[in-house]
Fold these 2 entries.
Entry 1:
Amino acid sequence: MTSSSRLELVCPAGTPAALRTAIIAGADTIYCGFRDETNARNFPGLNFSRAEMEESIAYAHERETKVFVAINTFPRAGEKRLWRCAIDDCAAFGADAIILADLGLLAYAADRHPQLRRHLSVQAAAANADSIGFYTRSFGIRRVVLPRILTVEEIAAINREIDCETEAFIFGSLCVMAEGRCSLSSYVTGDSPNLGGVCSPGSHVTYRESGAELASILGAFTMHRVPHDVPAPYPTVCKGQFKAGKFQGHVFEDPASLDASRLIPQLAMAGVTALKIEGRQRGRAYVGDAVRTLRRFVDDYAAGLPIGGGALNQLSEGQSTTQGAYRKKWR
Amino acid sequence: MMLRRLITKIVAGHSASFSRMAPYASAVFLIEPTDIPIQFRARLDSPTPIICQRRPTACTWDARIAGPISSLLAMAEGALDGDALFFSREITIEGNTDAILALRNAIDDAELNLPDETADLLGPLSPAAKRALEVAMPIMRPLLNGGIAIRGARPT
């Protein structure tokens, strides 16, 4: 499916205050989650209670803003009630869409709430037209959030073959693993990011200052040490520094955030319907800055104006950015 | 005493936001502004939720947050992003990371306006105090950002 209308800006909110901030900053759509393990940003003190979700959806609708609710972890065997209840509550609260990854939950939602729009989460790692076609035919998926492993050309090829909308990440923390299937942090913490909703949970993270050096430790392993004048990254395994043979450094990926804002024209031409900002775990300042900046870029593109860039560096992990797989320079 | 009343008022006035901290209400936070000679020891479920001490004073804590006073205040008001301050090494965190995340998220959701919250404590004088703080804060912030020298401060 190719898109011909204005690009939709899908923005993160980890709290009701962040949701209001994003709306004021120009979000078309907010995505958020319940305060439990049903979503992949299950951090302490983050997310929405049932009452907050109902009030926030009403608040957004009064301002002509849509709300998508992420229920995008995978239910543990024998405990599907929590996840099904989340879907039922979204239908009752009038959410504009639910973002799902698990096949069983997709089937449940399609069966029990056929009127509730279903989107496929990036956690489902559907990265080709056949896979996406299966989800659209089987569960009536209306939109797929594309994994962050595709080039712009690959996205265009997918859009020519599928019958649903696509949503592509434009800014924020970057994961180039097979999302929803990555268990790297499980080997260190014993907790599953795909079931519990947290990669590298804070309960396993320690930061230790030693002189001017900062050590970031996950479980029993030091992920990296940085001197005082070097930006700090998150202590995730995929962005840790390791020795491999004679190589020492970032083996999997560098600590940098995705910034594909300069690719907005190409993504639009590739048929993308919506651009997604990562960062439900970030504060109001991040949400406000990121949404305002990308609102301006999207509007500038729509008006035929050149798009700026680099404005979001200070918000980025490691204070550096990349266009990630959209360019796949390593090929 | 004024600071204690302020924290008590903020926590009570934003109970939904601070309920996010429920599992960590007993955690002891050491807040260390690195450019002024005082530190704050906070525990939200205590009758005395915050104690102001001369810095450095040895004490026990579960989580420690350190950085310039201007950055800590801006983060408390949601004007600066905590993760960005961490990436840039402007602030340092140690100890119970979950407790720090919960505190950050609770404060961010509370949408604090510290001049308003402070002025409200003054009762009938509140409108005048708000006007004075509205005038004073734009002057104070650049001074704080520039690392104003405070008598007795021990730079770190």
Entry 2:
Amino acid sequence: MPNELRIHAADATELTMEFAGLGSRSYAFIIDWHIRFLFALVWLLVVWLVMARGGGFESFSGFFEDDGGLHDYQAYITLLPALVIYFLYHPVLEIAMQGRTPGKRMAGVRLVDVNGQTPGVAALLIRNVFRLVDGLPAFYAVGCVACLVTERSVRIGDLAAGTLLVHEEKLSARALERARLVSGNRKLTPADQELLLDLVERWKTLDRAIRVRLAVRFLEKLGEQVPAAANSKRLNQVLYVKLQQLAGEPAH
Amino acid sequence: MSEAQQALRHWLEGRIERWQWLEKQCRLQGGGRQDSSRSSIEFIEGFRALGSDLSLSRAVFPESRLTRYLEGLFARAYEQVYRRPPALWHSLKDVFLHEAPAMVYDIRGALAATVALFLLSIFCGWWLVYSFPDLVGLFASQKMIDTVESGDLWTDDLLNILPSSVLALSIIANNITVTLFAFVLGAFYGIGTIYIISLNGLMLGGVFAFTALHGLAGRLFEFIIAHGVVELSVICLAGAAGVHLGESLMRPGNRSRVDAFRTAVRRAGALLLVAIPFLVGAGLVEGYISPAAAFPLSTRLVVGLAFGLVFWLVLTRSFWRQHTG
């Protein structure tokens, strides 16, 4: 099953974009859901606190009562932004951030159309309206099943709008600097350089036993001497320093 | 260090800053920033150089993160160079003035069928509850039933429970959700839409019959008329759009089902875009005019019919433009 989008640019360059699966999609959604929920809640609570100090509302429910409660303009100030944050978070941010949201950015994915370009406003609105179907009957069950059974791992909203969720490779300034530094190591082939950079970048997120095993195997593959250490904690530190040296970085 | 590697390092040293500059420009230009012709030319030159960098990176570091990064950057820069200029305002104007009216004309058959289904459901709901009053429990809550049986309408106290603003906002949110549901459930071969339209019709007919049994139908009509013309029109229109989606899946013609569905969604979506401002208006009327005892029936009739007339005039431009040349 093809898991990437191939685009032929006008100057005959071929580009590929890897489709994001259910995992990345769910990860991005969960982050976004928490952001919008918290922002809407914080707005409600802050406005309530500010107005309650002046209006003497004793409870949150009393705040919405007509008799002695909110004036019309206060209700709009309180409720309208909260509703807008909660319901328009996805469409507005996807339009403003060119197919991304904070959650998608953190998950390293973005939306594109079938030509690999940022989808138009209409497509982004349509994919969000179809959340109503994808969310049925609960917890995005229809959307999850659609992602699992469709060739490009898309939900119904994406099918309707012609949008795709693809991985987006971002390299930080530090990662680019590492790539520059490691390119000077003549012992390493480009493939080894790639492995080394990957290992150094992910070092702190890997389990200690796993990263030690990977580092030992990598050094053995290169024919480098594996440093000895008194215990696994010390070995972990020594190996990291060794890998940093190989990558051309000053060890910290 | 070998000569090739020296060259490679030199290349990377020279290019990294340039890639970061391009990345920043893509971000800024995507945000709609207008650029001078000089910076545009600079961007295009950077884009061309990036193409060469990508080729070199693919040759030296195939399958690497650097190559994937450059591919992503190239795609974004490519989009900036070749995209059409944004014309959101013109597109929106086009939707209101041409696309939505043309769509109403194209789906007039589905619209007539949806209205017929809605009226039939109202009649069935009325007949069911009028003949078997106990069945009202299917369509109304116990609290509503108790209020009507005591000779009052549940709408009488609305403004004592909630202020108009909160009422209007909750009604707007609810109406937009129902409308969107009626549309998107067409994705289930139209069956979901038929279900929503029938259910709403049955409820309306059933509740009217129950109030009629207690001599309150006139007062319910008085409550509904100011906002109901537009609200019920939008429900029928969304239903017709949903039926159109179902039809595109059942009879896709020469295209694949997905393509036919996508085209149908795009075209029918224009209708909803036009309908939503009217739903906001209807929600405000329902929050401020419908529950207020100060407005007589004549005012409510004028508001409801005038609002409905504007709605249908906007959406039937294709009909009357054709007939007036």
